[in-house]
Amino acid sequence: MTKIAKYWLLLESMQFAAINDKKEHGDAQYLKESSLANDMQRLSHNIREFRKYIKLPMKDLVRQLIEDLNLKHILGEAVELGETEDFATLYSFYGICMIKEIANNVNFISNAKEDLVAERHKCLFIACVQDIAQWSLQQHLHPNFYKGRPALFSRPHDKKTSFKNLEIYIGGFTHVLFIKPLHIGKSLDEPILQYMAGIFSLLMAFEDKEYVMADQEIINKTACLQRVWLSLPKALYFRNLMLMKNNKILSSSGQKILQRQLLVRLWSPGGFNAVVFALAECKNEEHSLEELISRLIAQPAYSAKAQKSLIAQILNFLQSCVDNQELLQYMGVGLLSLRRLYDLNDENKTFVEGWLQSQLHILIQPSCEKDFAIMDWSNFQSLISFLFHLFCTSTVECLPSNLLTSYLNLILNIFYHVQQYNNVQLLQGQLKALILKCLHNQNAKDLHKLIEALALQRTDFNGWFALNDCIRFDENPLNSQDLRIILTSEGPHLWDPLPALVIILKSSTFNLLTYNIFLILFRLLPKLMKEDEEEKKISESMELLQPEDLQQTILREVNSTYAGRLHIIKALESLVQHQPMKCMINENCSELLRCLADILINFAELNKHLVEINESTLMITLILIREVMQISTSSSDDFQTVLSKPLHNLYENIDRQSLKYQILSLLHLLQRQNNLNVRYEPLKNQFEEARGLVEAKESYLQVEGIEKLIKLVNCRDAYTVSNGHAVVAMALNTLKSPESYTFLNCVRLFTALVHVMEVEILDLLGDEYIADSSTLDYRLVVGEVILKIGRELGPLCYKYKFILLNCFMNGCRSHLSEFRLSAFSNLAQLCRILTYQVHQYFQELLHLIDYEITSGKYLPAKRAAVLVLSDLLEGMDNLIDYEEMLLPIYRLLKYLAYFKQSDEQIRVHATNGLKSLSEKCTKLLEDITASPLEKEIKILGLKDSSKPGLKKHILVMN
């Protein structure tokens, strides 16, 4: 310690150039930048102080340095090197000796009390290292380093480079520069730059045969550079390399050495991060940081291994940028470099594709156990955010979106799961951006294939990756702010991508993309209709009894046959109501019309006897064509060219009159002339007048409009019939009127419409009646309308018995007491009309009545239930036809009529029913006894002819 103490005293007596602020280095003596004379005076002072404490002659000092630094190849020249009289050289040798001794004998890293170094002494030591580096390393670099503009290093013009001295200086600083406690801020950045420049100077001199070194010495110098790379900040290493490489005057060997060193460091782990931070500190304002680094990184001459190493580094760097908000400013650097590397060759593309698949593989084929979390939620959010930045933050720097095509179904499924939660808006936005970017960058043909595969849920799509069927997203019970992703043991779940896609499209500004997808979905409808016959054959060929997978088979058949079409129709309905879509349709009617024409052609190719669902689809298509024609600004010639021939062909190939009305109306709009049959000529003005009256607020005007509509419907006006959907909508809206006169006339309008639209009207009213979302008063009114329509039709309503009976029997199960009362009352009157048509519903009807009587708590509903049986008996004409139903009805009515605890009104209804039954039985017996008895002998089996309409007894049925 005594030896080291003298060096602390020596440091305190020395004078150093004012390189750093005085406050940083305590009480040491500092001078400002001075002239060369002042520098020489300072060096002279410091050399005198050195000689006070270091008594060795210069020759012996140099020899000792060479031996300690293991530079045996220049040991013979120690005497010559020690004979110098140059102040800078003397100062350098003394200084190297001192800093080497301090570095070897002081433990700067230790925290032990006996090893602690005063902060004042440490600052003095740093200042000494800086000063000695200026007079030793910087004065003996390769001459090329002092040339060029701007010059990185400087020295007096008469100074000559001594590579032997430089070796000694480098050896001495190797003991000092790697002591980490000395790296306070940027205190040793300049000495490190000079140290590296010194090593490269020796390598350049050896390469140019200006200086001779053994192979071992070359290895030692390269090892020193490696130590700088591993021990010190890599950004500092690259900064120094860039500063030296910026000198255009360097010889070709020098440029080659620096370029090789740059590439070696760039390809090694952490190289890309280091070059980014290095160039960020010393970038040229003429070029952006992204351009500088991407040009340096994306070089076709690099080996395939080096390029893959760089890609892996960049991906890790980008992940760090996503996780650390402070690094987001460098995101563009990594993205542009990655994109240019990706575009270099197919090997790099394959490597990136493999990396992407490895990131998402856990969601495709998870390896964890059932009911356990697949991955941490924060990691999942980080993954999605990373993909978002890779593909969506720029159109130039990001990776091409075609990489996401194979994962579109997977990403849509993830969005389908998370869109129902409110605390993941950022994640939802990133998923939307990924999906939209992937779809937006597809050409027309590929987009059609993608949407078709999504809509029809094709699992055989080329290269298609899907989210594992057993993965489920739900709330994390341990953290209410997060979700969790688990592999459920409940089995796979069914989902459809179209609802999620529609939500994404409607919330975006990609209006043209939305319009194109709308057209693609619309074009799928005729394709589905063509597949109807094949699906029907498959369903018919499926055996009624199958093995244990019968339920799954049925579900699969139903899902493939109906669910796909249903989701497509719902998607179209949702999109067409989107306001921007309406604007797009107005501006691009021609494309939509061609699509509609294709659908009409497909309909014309189908059989005349269309299935019910295809009739509805065709009706919707025809209505849509008329709406488009009415709002379009295109010329009539365009419509005539596109639609005329398909409409005429379709008119010849269908039989349904309501569809013909629609087609005739369209043809008239196309031709703009009255050359069609007068009976089917649309009277647009009359219809619009009636429509305006019905939509008025005054009740008497509404009634007048309804009267006009009834007349138009009764005379089968083609324009009115073709606008039947609008008439029905007005009628339903008018039903809500509190005025009874308006209501009664509205019922007449529905009765007239039934003769034209038939099933559609009753289907619609039935849906309105059983819809729980509607108000009770409105549903009761609709029930009255249905009943009055049934009365108006009379016995003809047997065609709609399935709709009528099912509608009211569904209402009998309602939890609303008043609604059950209305349903039973309506059912009673309907049973009187349809008595001979209720055989197949009798058991269910009897069950409903029995359940209401025994379990119901609302007395008026019980009375109405008994009234159903009474009216059913009242409507029977020939009791023989109802012999299976009579005994259960008789027993129930007899029990209710004579049960003392029954309600009086219930007993009255039951008694009336029994009385009606008794009268009908008496009449039946009188008819039998009044007819003459005849004996007939008949041999069965010979020329028998069955009597149509008569019910055979079971004993005589063959």
TrEMBL record:
Any one GO BP annotation for this protein: protein secretion
Annotated ranges, domain RNA polymerase II assembly factor Rtp1 C-terminal: 689-795
Name of one Pfam family that matches: RTP1_C1
Similarity section: Belongs to the Tango6 family.
Protein name, UniProt field: Transport and Golgi organization protein 6-like
